[in-house]
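User: what does the whole thing look like in 3D?
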Amino acid sequence: MMYRLLILICVLAACRKGVVVPRVEVEQVSGFQRAAPPGAGTLGLYLLNEGNMNMNKASLDYLDLQSGLYHRRVFIAYNPGVTKGLGDVGNYIAIYGSLMYIVVNNSNKVEVVDAATCRRVKQLDVNQCRYVDFYKNKAYITSNDGFVGW
Amino acid sequence: MPLNKLQTCLWACLLFAGSAAGLPGGRVTGTMHITSGMQHNVMNERWRAVPDGDSYALPGSGIMLASHRDSLPAVRNGDTLRTVTVTSPRVPLLINTAHPVQVLAGDALKQVNSLSVADALRFFSGVQLKDYGGIGGLKTINVRSMGTQHTAVFYDGLQLGNAQNGQVDLGKFSLDNIDTLSLYSGQHNNIFQPARGFASASSLYIASARPHFKAGERSHGKLAFKTGSFGLVNPAALWQQKITGRTSATVSGELTRAHGRYKYRYTNGVYDTTAVRSNADVEAWRLEAGLDGSLRDSSQWSFKAYAYGSQRGLPGAIVANHFEYSQRLQDRDLFLQGAWNKSFSSRYTLALRAKYAHLFTRYQDPEYNNEAGFLDNRYTQREAYLSIANRYYIQPWWEAVLSTDVILNTLDANIYRFAYPTRYTNLVALATKISLSRVEIQAVALGTLVDEQVKFFTGAGSKRELTPSVSASWQPFARHNFRLRAFYKNIFRMPTFNDLYYTFVGNTSLRPEYTHQYNIGFSYAKTSIGLFEYVAVQADAYHNTVKDKIVAVPAANLFRWTMMNLDRVGVNGIDANVRAGVQLFAALYWNLGVNYTWQQSRDLTPGGYNYGHQIPYTPWHSGSLTSGVTYRGWELHYSFIYTGERYLQKTNIPVNYIEPWYTSDATLRYNYKGFSITAEVNNLLNQYYDVVLNFPMPGRNYRISFNYSF
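Assistant: Here's the predicted 3D structure for the full assembly of 860 residues, as structure tokens:
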């Protein structure tokens, strides 16, 4: 009987597809047209998805404005070693210089990535962070935790 | 199966002696003597050991013996009984009820590795347990995809209400003093019950241990101690005392303490993180006392007091860079309940039941950013309940029941802009049942009248509903224990106080959430087929719809959500289970149980973006397998649970996909006289999985228990 059970378990075990290493998923936006000549240096557009709270589903997408290719979940694809990825409740995103700042509220962090490659430069831990703004080479992060940091 | 169990079965069979003709396949042979007085009481105690008593679970098999009628005329009259001579082979008969019922009782309940009622319910088909993990985590059930709030939970016959959120945390109920768990789709088959018994889409009956005294016995006791992973320390004691010939008392108590820490692991193939679940500690106590008795006029009464207190951490969702939480929950539950019933003649019986419940909940969130710098919410719910049920036998085979319940619910909270609602519910049920030897038909009409008052702001309007249900079962062949059954039920759930009045989110114009259930099924049992002592099969196919489902949707903007009657769900499902017992050699007994559920639960919201998609957290396939061998004092049990692939949000796209999970548990027990020692290994294959996304479940864990009954 145990033998049969073992077979059953193996059959059922086969249903689990196992871990999938994150990759960039690229899709051509159908009917994509460059409506007007893009502004100087504007190559593409980053889109931050907030994701439902507690679901850890914040994600970063990229639309290439030259080709109309839409890249999904680029943060985890280029930084697969970051535990649980971009995190929970992506609240704000901004580029300053060559760096891009992604404020992830319920993950209590700001991901600082290279704006061109999306590779992580640094993770800043800020409790309940909300927004980021810049002034004279400094980034100012607002937090709903009773203090302001930079 | 040891002989003493056989005797227990005999007792069960004995109960139905009066209607033995109604027992399909009841080959009755042998001897048993009954005289009145004490035996009468014993019968009654036995009788009430099962919810409402129209069925009895056969110890050790999880299979139901079912009587044709739920009362014995000889007992009803309270006269001295003549000596009746009955025995029966250990014949497991299937459920004759028109409403599908699944039962775990006695040894079958011990066989599944379970600490709480919630754990045991994983072995029922058609049920999804929502489990946030760990010993202290919230555990609720969803039956046939209609939603948690559509399952009513009854403890010793009376409902555990929760007007605040409409759900009962089944993780709070330890199995230590529980005799029987029965889950009815539709409603309990015995129509002689409180009107509340008809007022939900499915009902779970939890029956605590009742005293059973043999001749000359005056007391019983039980001591138990469990320890193991998660720092669990769980002593429990039970004492049953016969006070007079007609009165007995039961007292039981329990302490549960655990630090709740366990390892969990998340990986995507590149990162591979193992961490320890924190803030999962729990400290709980339970104290329960009951009195049962019968009076000279053969009326019966019972009284019960139940108190529970707990203090626990609430482990949060494991999301990137945020693994630690500090929220706390405190509970103090108290309820008092009593019941009395009397047969005034062979035709008319009256039953009165009353209950008072006081539930206190305190939620503390030190991470919450408000002016005070933390959140400290306190909620107090009160419920007063009175039920009068009348049964009248128009003919010996035709009964009519009129039940009236009055329920008063209040909720107080120390939160901003709170309405302080009071709800008056009046339920009137008119039910009738025709029981012939091979056909049973019942019909129920339930009237619900709800009025609400609030101290501040606007209250929800009055609701007036009339909802019917009909059911039938039929045994087509006199000589085969095969029965067909069908039921239709229309019922609704009221919006909860949270749905209506939760500050900013609540919406007082909500309508009830309606369900329609259509079910057809069969049950079949056969005994003595070669080596097989019995084989029993039951299967049901069902179609449910949930209309005006209450969901939270963004209102004015994404930051202001509100409750709306928006969604519609259509469920097609099949529940099937097979049980078998084999006497392999003289002392070696093997049993097997397999449950399987298929569910297609689709979002049918008109014009919805997710039209046709499977609703969140509902697997298409799920099932369980339990198997055990018993050899003299030794028992070895194995159980397996499988939950298939599912989606965690409304849209069925790859990012919302969750993999199947399955766990194997094993138990080894040794019984010697009144002692038993049990070793359990749960999640044998150490699979890391989430039932609810980002709430990791424990890997392999262990438990050892000692029991002493005397």
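In plain terms: Chain A has one domain: 24-30+43-143. Chain A has two helices and eleven strands.
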